[in-house]
Amino acid sequence: MLQKPKTENRNAVITIRGVQKSFGDYEVLKGADLDLYEGENLVVLGRSGTGKSVLIKIISGLLQQDSGTVEVLGNKVATLTSKELMALRLRIGFSFQNSALYDSMTVRQNLEFPLIRNKKNLSKAEINTAVETVLDAVSLSQTINQMPSELSGGQRKRIGIARTLILRPEIMLYDEPTAGLDPITCIEINNLINEVQARFKTSSIIITHDLTCAKAVGNRIAMLLDGHFQQVGTFEEVFASTDERVTPFYDYNFIQ
Amino acid sequence: MFLELYRVHLFIMKFFREAFTPPYEGKEILKQCYQVGYRSLALISLTGFITGIVFTKQSRPSLAEFGATSWLPSLVGIAMLRTLAPLLTSLISAGKVGSSIGAELGSMKVTEQIDAMEVSATNPFSYLVVTRVLATSITIPILTFYTALVALLGAYVNVSLAESTSFSAFVQSFLESITFLDITASTLKALVFGFTIGMVGCYQGYNSSKGTEGVGKAANSAVVVGMFLVFIEEVIATQITFLFRM
After folding, report:
1. Which residue, A255, A218, A210, is CA-closest to A235?
2. Is A60 within 8 Å of B122 when comparing Cβ atoms?
3. Which of A87, A98, A114 is nearest residue B120 as measured by Cβ atoms?
4. Whole-model pTM?
5. Does B112 contact chain A (CB < 8 Å)?
6. What number is the ipTM of this complex?
7. Contact residues, chain A, for B122 at CB < 8 Å
8. What are B81-101's pLDDT values in tens digits?
């Protein structure tokens, strides 16, 4: 397993301040504050429905907060024009919970799609090289001509990650990367997240319930409880807490 | 109800805004045109041919009473070109293409494929909606004329079984009976029907929710609403065309 780099004294690439978001009468985020530092893997833990996925959708501009500010790579997301938001999105990779591969395209076409759309000056050979490089990075070169429906859950996750990596993002947002996978595949995905951090020098937010994943990939852990980040620190620091809303996470995951 | 109409209004306005904003998706539009044509062609060919046969068969006795069977090509031609061909083509396309667009976009929406497109810096509205609506708007008028020709062929087959008529004389009689207004009105009508079918399918699919149930609902609504609007537009178009004929 790769060694996790230390992240002290680095610049914040994402700064979240006082973010509130409601859906109807249900207030999901109630003034969340968080920083993601350059080069770190930050794991966001929390119960279902606490707004973890909402948070990364706000970061990528898929949703807009009701109040508060989200600054990504120096850009206030809510104030960007659609053109500026598109440019920012080229610097952010988003790995979806269900992979969100394009069903009607092969793996190759899925990977080519962001490149063809956004890097119009690339030659066919350069596109092929980029596709082969990211497929190699996720160890799935043999699937290049397969359809998403022919892939296993773990393979789909990997291809989803490869599709985001092809644009060489500076920030990666992983939404439940190990959800629904067997323990061995979870370990493979955890290793892949660490490899991506080391090889592509990304800063990442990983949304998960899985403490094994959190411990394996996180430089820091942020616990989202009642719409706020209640505990932020290393895995050991967070789970040294006696907060009765935090301890059940540890107890029920049987971590040694 | 009014909120829904407002949303539809915004959706249509967004379509026109995106349709005239570069980058243009020429390759994808061509691909969608092929898809629309390919999906409907077999059914349209069969329906058009059968309609031509049945229409001629049903009309013949009435015309024969007045010794006017020579008017059959004109009757079939006018009926097909003015109303039946645009209507048949659009109804079949609403069933085949509208439902397919609704289901495809609905499925993409609930499986976050549209979000994935957006976060990879691609404008999903331009890529998915504009291309499909333009494809139906372009292809359905073409298919309409194809339907009219196939129906004419069906009519000729039926006529030639009863009496010896040359195909060229049959076509000549048909061509003499139609006017520039018929062709223009039919083309514009088919264009509006095509736009409606594409727009309804895309709107239903793009705004679907509630998982797989939402996908089914989007596909179903695309057909029902699409057909309903086509009938309403047909009535309005017929009234407008009659004003021009007066």
Report:
1. A218
2. no
3. A114
4. 0.86
5. yes
6. 0.86
7. 113-114, 117-118
8. 999 999 999 999 999 999 999
